[in-house]
Known about the structure:
With 338 residues, the protein is mostly beta strands. It has helices at 29-34, 71-78, 80-83, 114-120, 152-157, 225-231; strands at 19-22, 45-51, 53-54, 57-58, 95-102, 108-110, 129-136, 141-146, 168-172, 178-181, 187-189, 193-200, 206-209, 241-242, 253-258, 265-271, 275-278, 286-292, 295-299, 302-306, 311-314, 320-325, 331-337. The longest helix has 8 residues, at 71-78. The radius of gyration is 20 Å and the shape is globular.
Amino acid sequence: MKNPAIDTTKLYPLKFQALYMERIWGGTLMSEHFGRTLPEHRDPIGEAWELVDREDAASIVSEGELKEWSLHELFQHYGTAFAGKAAAKFERFPLLVKLIDAGEKLSLQVHPDEQACAELGNGAEPKTEMWYVVAARKDAKILAGLNSRATRLQIMEKLDSNEIEDQLQIYSAFPGDAFFIQSGTLHAIGAGNLILEIQQNSDTTYRISDWGRVGSDGKPRQLHREAGLKSICFTNRTSPRIPGVSGKAGFNRKFDIITRCPFFKVTDLRLTSEWLDDTGAGESFHLISAVKGEIRIGRDQRIATLKPGESAVIPACFGAYTIKPLSGDECIVLKTTL
């Protein structure tokens, strides 16, 4: 039974239980890098949904006075006081946050934009996302975007061949790098990557190649080539890579990763001492994700401690708060807002 509602003046940084998803391509970096104890599983764990508000999946508060409340219940009950004025137009919490653990290369896929969704129908939802490389094994790659020479005809001809990679932009994966994957971008996460993904609240993915892989039942997974080809933006050849921060310093540093996206904004904080922040006029919640080093967030008695890999939502009405590094080394923290 969930705890009763509390006054907005008592809202606190909210942590949620992760929802783990088995994936045929899943890996072991989530447990190796973050030391997470994973649930029993038959197929590898490939995703941890850290924050989700969908009909078939809901994040549940893990501690405090609102323990057992779902993210959707919080969104409905507290409205803009929780999610912010920028979320007033949404019926559900507008972001979905995942950890992606790629033991093998993911399928080659694309997400539709609003125009493609209107044409395709069938409940298609647009999805723009950002990947932040948390950890990467040697030679791990990111495949994202068409290269300058790729044509629609070449892509169609090479869909059943690994030569399709020749039509893509391919990058070596380094921790701290980010990739802005706009809807319409053909992409695949390579093997050996641990990714923090910030995305629109959508679960629409069109798989156009699975590299000849078969599922645990011995059969190929379903492809969505017609819808996928209609969703690819063939005119976008920009690089999606946002280079990570280099070096360390003995003072706090702030780097904006995503600033002009209409769906979310992301900042990389490199902290050696306490960082003061504020949700201000309540335009948006602040999602705080610990990437490296343990941190404590909040103020007074309304605080939460985050281990590396954990996230918490600071309600839009919270106001001033601090992020305090608890390790002796530089901590890496991502802040996401609308």
